[in-house]
Amino acid sequence: MGISMFVCVLVGLVLYGTTTIINGVEGSHKVYKEYKSVPAVEVKQLHRTGFHFQPKKHWINDPNRPMYYNGIYHLFYQYNPKGAVWGNIVWAHSVSTDMINWKPLDPAIYPSKPFDRYGCWSGSATILPGNRPIILYTGIVDPNNTQVQNYAVPANYSDPYLQKWVKPDNNPLVFPGVGVNGTAFRDPTTAWWGPDGHWRIIVGSRRKHRGMAYLYRSRDFMSWTKAQHPLHSAKTGMWECPDFYPVSMDSENGLETSVMKGNIKHVLKVSLDLTRYEYYTVGTYFHEKDRYVPDNTSVDGLAGLRYDYGNFYASKTFFDASKNRRILWGWANESDTASEDVNKGWAGIQTIPRKVWLDKSGKQLLQWPIEELETLRGKNVHLNNQQLNLGDHVEIKGIAAAQADVEVSFSFASLDKAEPFDPSWADMDAQQLCSHMGSTVTGGLGPFGLLTLASANLEEYTPVFFRVFKAKDKHVVLMCSDATSSSLKKELYKPSFSGFVDVDLTDKKLSLRSLIDHSVVESFGPGGKTCITSRVYPTLAVLGDCHLFAFNNGTETITIEKLNAWSMNNPLMN
Ligand code: DQQ
User: Fold this and answer.
1) pLDDT level of residue 28 (50, 70, 90 thresholds)
2) What is the top-level taxon of the source organism (predicted)?
């Protein structure tokens, strides 16, 4: 395609993208009356993951306030006990000592009272003084989806697994109130405590086209008053699952949610119902005024920073006091049809828990899979100083390529062959660029990277790769995880997920880590700067017939300085 034609297509896509919903994964409130209470007859194993979190069967969505309490990690999550599509939602509950091996428990919260009869939607936990956890969650009170905020507490604090939760009769704690849209009022955050002796939470909402983080204050956690102004708002559409927390400017250590002093910044993350993607800003919390202001390096909305440029939604962080770190969980939904979910008897996984901290630049977060994941590493192969010339693809043999952890660092002798970056692409969604400059389109410096979940003759593969461009006064690095050729099956959502990487190329190196797990490829660009999760469903590249390659389709020779790949063992998974 000529460059002018290419630009026309891109401009068209930009215009198209601004007026439509751009993510093709299923939303979590789409009701399939015919399927929602159809239990799985058989759970199909082919694309089930080996080491990602999932229950034995049926539908899962949002992780609901993970927490660490008395030596145990708890993960609650939105779950349909009766079927493989969204509906009949309860808070399922699993426990772990390492966030890798999980033991299932009975659902912790399920519809049973007038204040949650039609659903127990997302929320958060807070550990109150005296080491007493409390959950805030959204209850659905009528068939029109009117939403209120409720609380639940453990029935027995000395039960190490906190198996039973009670929902006292003074619920609901928070009603939508005058001027608040009652069907768009949900997902209370973990509370933080201010020096004035008040707890604070935010609740996601919208006013017309404006996403709102409504702020509530309480002295006793029971009686909540809405603040006059929201903590923050922006013209982006509905905000679901907000998350608000401090990050250190000096260290990778996490901070407890109420920390307000020291060399810190705050992060506000929202899940945009309109796009089904998540965006965050880094900024300052003026706690005397209860206002959050994003830094001028962070923008609200579609051009903003994302935890993950792929299939990742409704995420939630928590402070892990046992290791002084902040951990992020996110939901990766299927990219398949609802009828296929019913057929396979399950839908949805949680991504691998990630440690999150502020990059030294102060402009973005970094994310990395928790170190405990490495306990699953089995057979290892490695490569050093392997050159990749234009058109090369080198197989990485000797590991289970369908269930693997791969770390690779690439280097190149020069940046001279980087292709020119057209200034008109600057405002473009990286995904649109990647869909037109895929892994097989010859470039200068890149495309190079990994071909994951590949069949022997490359009828199917999911490439994860970099492509470097030269803009007027800097280089622009594009990272893609492209599902276009991931499966011979046609009726799938196969996006060219992509994000830009803000990285210094002085050392002429780029590194990548990919967690490959049958139907998911979760990738981390240089040091966790850009992360992309793809859900894919190969038909040939499965189990023992799955292969892994490194490739280069750029004219600049690339060197694999070091590659380590491990087969991953199965943890105890529910
Ligand atoms: N999922 C929950 C809601 C939340 C949405 C319902 C996000 O509380 O807003 O299952 O995926």
Assistant:
1) low
2) Eukaryota
From ligand 1's centre to the CA of 468, what distance in Å? 37
Q: Is the pTM of this model over 0.85?
A: yes
Write the DSSP assignment of 473-500 as a string of letters: SSEEEEEEEE-TTS-S-SSS---EEEEE
CATH number, domain 3-369, options 1.20.120.1200, 3.30.565.60, 2.115.10.20, 3.40.50.150: 2.115.10.20
Across 274-292, average pLDDT: 95
Ranges for all domains in the chain classified under CATH 2.60.120.560: 375-568
Query: Which amino acids bring their CB within 6 angstroms of ligand 1?
Result: 28, 61-62, 78, 89, 121-122, 138, 186-187, 240-241, 271, 313-314
- Is the pLDDT score of 244 beyond 90? yes
Which CATH fold topology does 375-568 show?
A: Jelly Rolls (2.60.120)
Numbered ranges of CATH 2.115.10.20 in the chain: 3-369
Q: Which of 239, 287, 247 is nearest to 267 (CA)?
A: 247
Atom of ligand 1 nearest to the CA of 240: 9
Q: Which residue has the tokens 């910044």?
A: 265
Neighbour count for residue 458 (Cβ, 10 Å)? 17
> Tens digit of pLDDT for each residue in 41-58?
999 999 999 999 999 999
Unique residue bearing structure tokens 């850009």:
530
